[in-house]
Design brief:
Elements lengths: L6 H9 L7 H12 L5 E2 L10 E3 L4 E6 L18 H24 L3 E6 L6 H16 L5
Amino acid sequence: MTDIYSKNKRSQIMSKISGKETEPEILVRKFLFRKGFRYRKNDKRYPGTPDIVLPKYKTVIFVHGCFWHGHNCRAGKLPETRKEFWQNKIDTNIARDKKSRRDLEKLGWKVLVIWQCELKNKKIRTETLKNIEQEIQNGYIT
């Protein structure tokens, strides 16, 4: 299937996609705040600039868009046009994500990843957020 937009129009549309303050990130942050967790967001001092940093729990959270980070769900499917370009782009993102995770773990941080698709359906979202809360508290000694 060919793109319905011109190359310039598609470029303009894609440039508007932000990597910060996404709806899934905001949803997770609001949940954490309601549960009493305090955090920093998009802290550049840490490898990979995690979306959420919980210093008290030595935990970071990445909220990944399924397409951009190569999830194996329906939303992570590559477009039919320019497959080679997109495959290279996503592969680069996946490699960067792995390196960031490794670097953070070497520094003693717990790294959690939430996929966008895990927040779409209410039942799955509730379970995912509950699991995240447990993971953050797991191993934390007051």
